[in-house]
Amino acid sequence: MAGPVVKVSDVHVRPFLPGDRATVRSIALSTAMAGSSSSMFFDGDEFLADALTGYFTDREPESCFVAVLDGEVVGYIIGARDTIAMDACFTRKMLFPLVQKALCAGLLFRARNIRFLYQVMRAAFSGRLWAPDFSREYPATLHINLLPQARGSGLGGRLMASYLGLLRKNGVSGVRMATMSEDAGRFFEHQGFKLLYRSSRPYFHHILGRDVPLLVYGRFLR
Ligand SMILES: CC(C)(COP(=O)(O)OP(=O)(O)OC[C@H]1O[C@@H](n2cnc3c(N)ncnc32)[C@H](O)[C@@H]1OP(=O)(O)O)[C@@H](O)C(=O)NCCC(=O)NCCS
Predict the structure, then answer these.
(1) What is the CATH number assigned to the segment(s) 11-220?
(2) Taking residues 178-195, what's their average pLDDT?
(3) Phi, psi angle pair for 115, to nearest 5°
(4) Can you tell me which atom of ligand 1 is nearest the CA of 151?
């Protein structure tokens, strides 16, 4: 007699393709506030997706990987092998079009954005956006995000292994990243990262009623 039919999911990690761009942007927006949606703090999806993922998907797509569950992209790791070059590219080529986009779309006049930008400016003027510069010892960076239904089944570890493999192949000496999630911090420690710097950020205070942690993790690759 035949037993119950058990569905076996197809789960894999593969390099990013241009057709994944829209999904990566949508996942970035849905997880932007420490795993929750960006709509809680910002009104302007196109602009925010450009700011969060534009460099990685459009300027360095070869450093991006996606996680696929039953044919759907459910997560990503997006990275930069050299953050000094990334920052230079952002300032020279991406900042002006971004500002133009924000002005043309009237984003600076939307109440949610005014509240958020006010918090960011206050934090900047009181020195609360400062963090040490780790770009010499740890030149690379990354962002990793999975949709809730894809978490906890090994995909995060597989995305990380793909990206670290790419960095090693390119002779990169170290990688660091920042997170606002203590939970994600434990994942990074499990992946061999060490806590380099701990602080807190006040810019979601008007929504959460508390500061969020800022945890910077790093890992040498040689
Ligand atoms: C953080 C995140 C990428 C981890 O991916 P994941 O698929 O859930 O993690 P995995 O299942 O691959 O776990 C890999 C290993 O890390 C461990 N791990 C994962 N999360 C952990 C946690 N919160 N605490 C301790 N260990 C953890 C797992 O037990 C596993 O161990 P094993 O290899 O011995 O079995 C994912 O949960 C996520 O996207 N979270 C929301 C967004 C976020 O916080 N992004 C990162 C910061 S910007």
Answers:
(1) 3.40.630.30
(2) 96
(3) -60, -45
(4) 8
